[in-house]
Amino acid sequence: MILIAESGSTKCDCILLDLSGKEVDRFSTMGFNPYFHSTELIYNELSSLKPLAPYSSGITWVYFYGAGCSSPYLNAIVKKGLEKALPNAIVSVEHDLMAAAYSTYRGKPQVSCILGTGSNSVYFDGEQLYEEVPALAYILGDEGSGSYLGKKLLAAFLYKKLPVDLNKAFELEYAIDKNTVVDAVYNKPNANVWLASFSKFFGQHKENLWVREIVKEGFILFRDIHILCFKNAQEVEINFVGSVAFHFKDILEEVLAEKNLNFGYVLERPLDGLVNYHLKFLRILEKQVSKASMKA
Prior knowledge:
The protein is an alpha/beta fold and 296 residues long. The protein has helices at 39-47, 72-85, 96-104, 137-140, 146-158, 164-173, 178-186, 191-196, 199-204, 209-227, 243-247, 249-257, 271-280, 284-295; strands at 2-7, 11-17, 23-30, 61-66, 90-95, 110-115, 119-124, 129-130, 237-241, 262-267. The chain has 14 helices and ten strands.
């Protein structure tokens, strides 16, 4: 069997295929990011994942795409955890930017963007990926992402700058104060995921003018830094993956139109598009069946 997994910092979506290309099962687990998670944690999480247990010994190929998987050293952290949990599998680990590019590819060059827990972008011509500016994660970067929105919301609340109606709604939704925020952001692990969890509040109040202004400001920053950095950005489709892009699609279209950029489409979760790319363009089933035959 073949396991294809796409992991942000918050959640990892997985799908199992048999060698005919038929879907066997799909499930989710916590997101694995080698900046924050060790090999041992990844192994322990997968080993205790009940939906995976019936298939673990029969999985022979793994294609994993993950946030933070941007260097051989970081990739090795994830790869070792996967190999330990799935001892019969040959494991490939790549960056989540590759998953974004693959899942949104429709046969022509594009700029593919991530707007989920974090944010990033890449130019994909169908063969090669080109990064123009780096992703600086939730402290220095992640413009327009869930963690960016969470920071803006919490700062406005603590500075007493939230509009009255939103402030009341926030206090009803969350029992939180400065000490809780400072401890979660500066002392506890996975601060980026914790911050991004507050983007749900934006979704619940997406028609509020203050909310829309903050989201638009974040998208403008993302556009100017992560899309307009590509010289031919106005000549190709701009496609997106991620929950923030999905839930605020109308604002995203507006922000791109202001710079005459060609808005393509948005996938909330890239897994299905990723599977289609593997089957159509990478032709993984033919390769895996061929390799299996050679081994036999």
